[in-house]
Amino acid sequence: MFRPFELFIGLRYTRAKRRNHFISFISLTSMIGIAVGVMALIVVISVMNGFEKELRERILGMASHATVSGPLERLSDWRAVEKRIEGAPHVLALAPYVQAEAMLSAQPNVSGAIVRGVLPDAEDRVTDIVASMKAGRLDALQAGGYGIVLGQELADSLGVGLGDAVMLITSNISVTPVGALLRERRFTVVGIFQVGMYEYDRGTAFVHLTDAQKLFRLGEDVSGLRLQLDDMFAAPRIARDLAAQLGPEFWVSDWTRRHANFFRAVKTERTVMFVILALIVAVAAFNIVSTLVMVVQDKQADIAILRTLGATPGAVMRVFMVQGTLIGVVGTLIGVVLGVLLALNVETLVPALEELLGRKFLPPDVYYISELPSQMKWSDVARIAGLSFVLSVLATLYPAWRASRTQPAEALRYE
Fold first, then answer.
1. Using CA atoms, how far apart are residues 348 and 227, in angstroms rounded to an integer?
2. Which residues pair with 99 in a beta bridge?
3. With a threshold of 0.85, does the pTM exceed it?
4. Which residues contact 237 (CB under 8 A, 6 or more apart)?
5. Distance between CA atoms of 222 and 73, rounded to whole angstroms?
6. Could you give the number of structural domains in the chain?
7. What is the per-residue pLDDT across 54-89, written as a single tens digit (0 to 9) for each?
């Protein structure tokens, strides 16, 4: 427990004008180092949180919480399966879908894509595709109308817009008197969407479920059912319960399994970045050791006088711990304030910096997310501030212990 005179002397040593200006310089650099480390940690962890949030929202804007399919990704008598699932706990909505790869052609441009057959009204209940429409409407897809909705990047690569025609070519082969031919069908662009994730905007197209069944020769079958759940984070558990309910002939998957690599990569990178940037704080805290060692050497006579006046070794130790801890606390507070301000304004500052430099930091054709998001969590701020404070306190222990071991007679011998 710190007593008043220990706090008073420790704070006085901090405020006093030292004869050795080099000690003041090291104290200042230690404080700045801790502030920079704390600020960098808060900003980087907030950006990583933002990336994870954006990735999750954009993926789930196109991918459902869970899917149910049959053998070889083909589900027969899907309406009966739908009735069995509708009464299951935690399931809010269902939508059938057909999914297959195809080639889209609009002369002279050709591009591969994932073609998804959907029922527009049902699809709106399990994904956010309707909210992502930039032109046209999803409900413009009508059975037998052979309309198609393209991602913005896919439409740009094909050079088409609303009302234009594209040729959809499948890998299914039709046998004719003149030989085997690939199945193809002319579609009209009735909508364009943009979810902000290049993978989907560049490689996904929607058609009506009935048109997809005819095109891919599925009859009345579908690829599976897409499910909307009441708790997306409980998707793995709910998927296991559904799998047990439906039986082994059905395959139930959830969004965490299908996109586990994305979130595992983000989590790993966040942990590594935390460790790397925490080393900045550790190095700055190590400078506190150097500062206090020199202060102890400079204050040998003062320590000896305190000892002769009755100060215990523990009291002397706490005096110098106050000084070192104050450096860490001030550096931490400055770092927290700057880090919070930056983390809350990253989404404003980065576009301004990009415009000033005339270059894009995250090109959309390279990165899944082309903007730098930020989501600051006060729990992370508290954890980072606590780490900085603990390292600062630990850095004071050795110099303070050295000060407490000072022998008055030896220190005053040549005074």
1. 36
2. 116
3. no
4. none
5. 8
6. 2
7. 777 777 767 788 888 888 788 888 888 888 888 788
Q: Residue 325's domain spans which residues?
A: 4-58+262-412
pLDDT tens figures, 207-234? 999 999 988 888 888 999 989 888 877 8
Q: Which residues of 335-367 are buried (b: 16+ CB within 10 A; e: fewer)?
A: bbebbbebbeebeeebeeeeeeeeeeeeebeee
Neighbours of 299 (CB within 10 A): 23
Beta strand pairing status for 66-69 and 147-151? unpaired
Tokens standing for 189? 């662009």
Rounded to 5 degrees, what angle do the CA atoms 218, 220, 225 make? Answer: 90
Terminal C-alpha separation, the chain? 32
Residue pair 115/102 in contact by the 8 Å Cβ criterion: yes
Q: Are residues 223 and 301 in the same domain?
A: no
CA distance 389 to 383: 10
CA distance 150 to 253: 26
Reduced to 3 states (helix: H, G, I; strand: E, B; else coil), residue 90 is coil
Residue 133 and residue 236 share a domain: yes
| CA-based R_g, the chain, Å | 33
Same domain, 44 and 115: no
Listed residue (251, 391, 244) closest to 332, CA to CA: 391
The domain boundary residue, chosen from 237, 255, 273: 255
d(CA 167, CA 170): 10
